[in-house]
Give the backbone structure.
Amino acid sequence: MSDIRQSWYEAGARERIAALVDSGSFAEFVGPERRETSPHLGIFDLPAQFDDGIVVGSATLDGTPILVAAQEGRFMGGAFGEVHGAKLTGLLRAAKALGRDVVIAFDTGGVRLQEANAGEIAIAEIMRAVVEARIAGVRVVGLIGGRAGCYGGGGLIAGCCSTLIVSEQGRISVTGPEVIETNMGVEEFDSRDRALVWRTMGGKHRTLIGGADVFVDDDAAAFRDAARAALAQSARPLSVRSAYPHSFALSEVEGLGSIDGASTSLSTNGGGSIDGASTSLSTNGGGSIGGASTSLSTNGGGSIDGASTAPSTNGSGERPGLDLDTLAAEQARLERRIARFGDAADATDIWQALGIDDPKAVPDMPATAFATLAAQYRESADDAR
Amino acid sequence: MTPVEILASLFPSGHSVSAEGDLLFGQGTLPGGTVVHVVGATARAPIGIDQAIRLSGAVLEIARSDDATPILFLVDSASQRMSRRDELLGLSEYLAHLAKSLLVAEARGHRTIGLLYGGSAAGAFIATALACGTLVALPGAHPEVMDLASMARVTKLPIDVLEAKAKTTPVFAPGLDNLVSVGGIAAVWNADESLADQLQALLARPRDGDDRAALGEKRGGRPKSARIAGEVAAAAQA
């Protein structure tokens, strides 16, 4: 790891993987030397790329084997075409078979429209593969902070992940601003109003409403540390079992640990420390790399042991994965969001309803200050995803 | 066919399916005695957060039962609702949650069958019909990924170029045949024969994994995806 801060937003797919995993540990599957290009782009006289805009392979993270994928947002906007999608599907199926966790660095506008039908089905296949892997106890951690954001079908795949780590630049949405404007008119959504785009779809808003779990600065090291902490969690913390459906109060007392019936599991299974971990990570991500790395390595060090033992139980199916209880908790969480914020006209109204005194100041807040604020006021997904 | 005609052909002895806005909920009994849960997104309506959360709630309620009752999802929708409010509140999460609900219901033993009898598009298509274990269609169904005007905006290609390409390029153009050729739709049912018979035949065949890439290869719409996915999975396990 270098001392020089590396922007995640500016990095390419291969640079992101290099920043994420242990040096020299990455082995690519069906790499560019195979020249498995899109069979469809030629129809539009568009240039193909030898890796079709995604890099997939295996690596270690602090010695623990993982599978990793990174989309290249600079090729066709990171969009899902036939080959691109098939590589991720294959990786996820292997993850299920091996009981091995997966990290996906999203950077995508969604389906590649020049091969739209192939891309659409690829999205459906990937979502199924994510869910089947998670049911088997595998964690699928999504990282979102690239140029293309995470739009369209990419947003739906992200919604299937166990944990989402975002930076301010990490926009998550289904319909992109231009498409809303084209279909519904500029009165509905002015795609040139960048401030509107960022506060409606950006990483800060997603973090505040529980659409993303961990907020980090635009820093490759911060993404790595957050991914490491996410992988150290159990596939589905037991807190989910007891935290729904009345977990409304969680956001207001996050980190305190004991909430009614949830108190037992939260205090005994590490649920409380998970909150603590994500809070300190977020704060750390804010930029002071020296201080951050100290506390992070302490954090990570303790939990990595847990992670390295996890895959062995994982493969035998003992580690609880995505199940009905997870989804019942998510159902309650998403119903509550509509009940609480369904009439809000703008993100700032939601932030105000969350209790933030000066919501208009949020977009300009530095990452550290924002992470501290978010830890206090956000709606936490609390693993209900 | 209309939902009324479809339900009559599926459940000749009657059913309890009723409409709630543009959504359908209820159940019917096939002539052979099999009970089938029905959910539906109808009337070419968009699917926003309010529709998605209602559908997922119904699916999860069914999934909670251990009786392995199949779920039939009737689909004639627009795309996902394109609005500032839906995106502000996180429509991607609601659609993903609906898809996950269907996938977990299936994993718990409930066969999930999508029946596309009209339109569907983009994220709404992915979260409903394409999240089912088996997707069949009726003739006249018209799925699409995105309307050509939006495609023109996003791809920055002139719309007349897209319209011309759409006539000759199955991999990108809207339409039932094109989605069949990439393996997204397992079969197109015969509207002149009993839908109950066709559903019973489908349920009698066990489903074994996601075969859409293999179908797409066989039908020529997706020449590479089955092989590439297989090679990546094999390399990872080598």
Notes: The beta strands of chain B are 18-20, 23-29, 35-47, 71-80, 112-116, 119-121, 134-137, 142-144, 187-188. The mean pLDDT of chain B is 96. Chain B touches chain A through 82 residues (CB under 8 Å).
